[in-house]
């Protein structure tokens, strides 16, 4: 009898449903970032057709960032109130519809001003719809993964941003070259709509998954996974109310969290350079065709993807070997950001091949250091993890507003990308300073549930 029970238990431990959930997070995040990057690939052809200069293009690029930031805290509250599955499904559907509609801008090209306003508005709506996505990723990882696996899990879903470029930059470049820039938005919008339906069929909370074993539930719960996060009967009613100012004040008043938040702003500056201006840099500064730029942009992205996965593996490996959570999370972040500063060297070389090699190293470093969401999963108060992740993402994605605009002015003012690369690299150095001198010990922040 004992042998049978032990055998059944051993068999149960072989279920790995959390990795299927992670696979869906990876797929959805890939689509998420591909939709963000549609304009960067279509941008050179679109801006030429509409007669848009660098500064105007910078503002259009920033439209996503404005709404993405504004909608972060409401999105985080929605996640805490209604759960990750439903809110995320609605998010995917809406941002895909707004992406699809951008293809219709081609009918407005007779009036450049109207076309620019419509494009800005639709990018704004895409940003608002995508706002809950990364806080939801963080919540789902916190619910499904024990602490010793959380760094790798967070790195994997975060590395989807690089895989999006690897897979979709060449595809979108080919579509733009062969069928025109509107086709990019149509294809990506339809793909996202299909993915939203798949999401509803495949993603569940740990407690509601139809085929998860009790042994897997016990394993992840024992390791610190918040398996009851989205269970209505276990959530405190106070956290279903609209976000209270004193919760946000507590988060902002913590030195560790503020260091993480500011560091994320700096790290995300690198992300938005690669998402918005990098393909334009290849076309206008390095003389590549749109088709070639789409394929070449995939090479640094492959390195970013490798760095992203490696950063999570290194972090969790250090943790399993007995190093503190602080050392395990900070080490890849600091090394990665230092590697990212290598992009400045591009200002001093003429060879396109060398430029791509340097950018690949910088992108590898950016991937290696992109462990912010693992840190959020480690530090967020369990009662308001959605709100905490949203605040973190608010700081980070403010860079989605500032980076495209600042780079646009730098390009117009200097006539080249040299100052822009210095600006991006300087942000990487500031991120290093935040993690070395401000963050201190990384640990879960305990929320005070009373007070004004």
TrEMBL record:
Q: Which UniProt keywords apply?
A: Cell membrane, Membrane, Transmembrane, Transmembrane helix, Transport
Please name the SUPFAM superfamilies in this protein's record.
MFS general substrate transporter (SSF103473)
User: Which GO cellular component terms, listed alphabetically, does the Swiss-Prot or TrEMBL entry include?
Assistant: plasma membrane
As for subcellular location, the record says: Cell membrane
InterPro entries given for it?
MFS, MFS_dom, MFS_Na/Anion_cotransporter, MFS_trans_sf, Sugar_P_transporter
Output the CDD domains linked to this UniProt entry. MFS_ExuT_GudP_like
**Pfam families with a match to the protein in the record:** MFS_1
Q: Which GO terms describe its molecular function?
A: transmembrane transporter activity
Q: Classify the protein's membrane topology as the record does.
A: Multi-pass membrane protein
The transmembrane segments are: 57-79, 86-108, 114-134, 155-175, 181-200, 256-278, 290-315, 327-345, 351-376, 388-411, 417-439
According to the entry, every stretch annotated as the Major facilitator superfamily (MFS) profile domain falls at: 21-443
Family, according to the entry, reads as follows: Belongs to the major facilitator superfamily. Phthalate permease family.
List the NCBIfam families hit by this protein, alphabetically. 2A0114
For this entry, the protein name equals ACS family glucarate transporter-like MFS transporter
Organism equals Roseateles saccharophilus (Pseudomonas saccharophila)
Q: What is the lineage of its organism?
A: Bacteria, Pseudomonadati, Pseudomonadota, Betaproteobacteria, Burkholderiales
